[in-house]
Amino acid sequence: MKSTSPVWHPFTQHAVQPEATLIARGEGAWLETADGRRIFDAISSWWVVTHGHRHPHIVRAIKDQADRLDQVIFAGFTHAPAEQLARRLVAITPPELDYVFFSDSGSTSVEVALKMALGFWRHRGENRSRILALQDAYHGDTIGGMSVGERGVFNAPYDPLLFQVDRLPFPSADHEQATLDALQTACRNGGVAALIAEPLILGAGGMLIYPPWVLAEMKRICQAHGVLFIADEVMTGWGRTGTLFACEQAGITPDIACYSKGLTGGSLPLAVTLCRADIFDAHYSTDRTRTFFHSSSYTANPIACAAALANLEIWDTEPVMERITRLASWHATRLDRFRDDRRFKNVRQIGTIAALDVVAGDAGYMANIGPSLHQSFRERGLLVRPLGNTIYLMPPYCSSEADLDLVYDAIGEIADGIG
Ligand SMILES: *Cc1c(COP(=O)(O)O)cnc(C)c1O
């Protein structure tokens, strides 16, 4: 039956999915429905909530900022929260990422990165415009983001609008060299502006993990050919993979990096694209046609920037990294029981993210089992939203061991139900 609500939800097939659950409150790792049921947020409300819902320090910062300055045009004007945040970001991100461009979402941070790369080469007078991307990549749902992302059911209708990219095979275990070889070949062919990649784990593409040495090699090959390396850390940033940023594990500095999701601790939409000075400098000119022509109305919204600053203060003042390490070890001990379970395969983990594939029927995002898995978790008061037959967990860092037990026990029970 058609809902009476006029709301069209994202990634939702209204004809087959149950009515949306009405959420009234959130606290820590838990949500509460309007009728008082509690739900464990095992995927951090689509990967954004890091310290838990309504962290008091972030809530206070939002209230204080709202009392002073809500919004101001960001061209020709600036404000303290953005200035302070930019300085802090330059200090904590990999070295030499010296300039910060603000936008509103992960997708827009990727669009900005692609435009920076193309602008860089054009203003340098070099004919480089091809983009390289990984198979199974996800970089957002705007036209540029879809173009560099994996093609398939998600974007087939829009294919005529998408630009061509050169696709590198995913560096799966024991096939890493094929990826590196393909990268070498593409770089040698010339005309390549940039490689964009999610460092260490491809998120929406199925929680596919690859090792730091491959990331380091990709960066090295790019550098040898003058190809810009864009790290899309929209999901991996803010501790998700066990370090503040995933690139740290490979000891690399990307030329351009995108951060969003956990940037405000999951409280407000905000994104940044950081770049090296030479990319800024290529646009720096008395020739006004070299301006970086990009903006969104709410660029660097002061309240969102204040929330992001409060997030960084939490990283400074609370044992966030210890929570992450603890969460990672809780995952590890609980995942073990599924390693020899023939109903699952590809049991895997990186930092606070755990994933496993259900062996039942078809695989991939459109796997028939996906919606019923989602529903089974829902009935148990758990927010888990499998990517097809891939069950993954990405809880807030404040989750307790008992919270995790609830969800791991549910995985076992649901698998029993599948038989
Ligand atoms: C979520 C995500 C995006 C898109 O971010 P939005 O805020 O949803 O636009 C881009 N890249 C990666 C790697 C993501 O996980």
From TrEMBL:
Q: What is its main location?
A: cytoplasm
Q: Does the keyword DNA repair apply?
A: no
Site positions (Participates in the substrate recognition with KAPA and in a stacking interaction with the adenine ring of SAM) are F11
Organism equals: Rhodopseudomonas pseudopalustris
Q: In which pathway does this enzyme or protein participate? A: Cofactor biosynthesis; biotin biosynthesis; 7,8-diaminononanoate from 8-amino-7-oxononanoate (SAM route): step 1/1
UniProt cofactor(s)? pyridoxal 5'-phosphate
Chain residues that bind pyridoxal 5'-phosphate: G106, S107, D232, S296, S297
- Name of protein: Adenosylmethionine-8-amino-7-oxononanoate aminotransferase
A cellular component term (GO) from this record? Answer: cytoplasm
What's any GO biological process attached to this entry?
L-arginine biosynthetic process
> Known EC number(s)?
2.6.1.62
Subcellular localization: Cytoplasm
Which residues carry the post-translational modification N6-(pyridoxal phosphate)lysine, per the record? Answer: K261
Its taxonomic path starts at: Bacteria, Pseudomonadati, Pseudomonadota, Alphaproteobacteria, Hyphomicrobiales
